[in-house]
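Recall that a protein's primary structure is simply its ordered list of amino acids. Everything else, from secondary elements to tertiary packing, is in principle encoded there. The following example makes that idea concrete.
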Amino acid sequence: MLNPKTNQRELCYVVRVDNIEPIPNKDRVESAIINGWHVMVPKNAFKPGDLGVYFEIDSKLDTSKPEFAFTEKYHGKIKTQKFALKDSDGNKVGVFFSQGLLMPLKELGLSDKSEGDFLTKELGVTYADPDDNKRKSNSSDKYKKMAGRHPKLFQNPIIKKIYKTTWGKKLLFVFFGKKKDNKSAFPSWVVKTDEERIQNLIHRIPEFQSEDWIATEKRDGTSTTMTLKGHGRKQEYAVCSRNVRMENRKDGSWYDTNVYTEMADKYNIKKVLEDLLTNEYEFVTIQGETFGEGIQKRDYGLKEHVFEVFNVIFGYADGTTRRLNPIEMKKLMDKYDVPTVPIIEEHFRIPSSCKEILDVAGGEAAVYGGMREGIVFRNYDATKSFKAVDNEFLAKYHG
């Protein structure tokens, strides 16, 4: 779930159980329904209306903590799990996907927590994939850069106390910060990419049904951002992963090569941005997915890296922005021979249930073949978007 205050994904938080459903021919477990998620839980552990702590798929628990020791056999990883359902004669009658982990507040000593409280940091939950932790870290934060240059000073108890506050960081930066720290920080004008899943938005489905949507294919790769801001001598160009600005063109970071600058060079993105950044705009940002050999388990059979654009954003001096919808985006990027994510349907009508939306998420990839990860939906004025990820895909590649 996205934290509305930070626009960052939270991996665990307090939820209210919407319903409890039986799982066919399973006597000891049942399904807890949380928004659009189905989670296998011990029978009678929860009832509708109960609060619990929900750990999302892709999260990893610290198994050295007694309360999480039972996940040791899974190395603490919370993934999509697929279970075959059989009738009394042993014949397969379907499948059940369990997505996430639900634990009672009391078991975690959190009875004072309320619905909606985010607990990712408090419980020390990280991403299951080590590469995700690197990609989504704040290692390029200008304050961390500053502190890293003065390790002894920033271990001083008084300095540490000052550093913990927003005003304190700013004050310390006046004395110990450097211009290069600012330059290496993630661009403040860039909105980080992380679409919300439909399972967390089921309450908005009636709203979504009132308009047409453009459905595009979701690629399984690494989010890549290139942006250009300002004019003249103060113009600033940056290439970033989802959360980290690339400081060194030769730095492979968490891949064998720096795939982010590689894509910027391959598609001549800086020249494209320079062409698009007219005096009308304060900045232009191009965001997309880099995928292929060595990136995720789904490499699309490629022996190279490919970049496909999913966002083009224009920023104005007054702080407002304009995002192109996928049709507008493709028309513009085609002029520069820069690939865009495949458009599956230009006038998609949203079904009435989460299950129906997830049912259309799967299928064959429009380009390169094989399973597609899912679909990203964006409305025509590009002000709303969400994603639906295929459960079969998750079970095969991320389960």
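The first strand starts at residue 2 and ends at 3. The radius of gyration is 23 Å.
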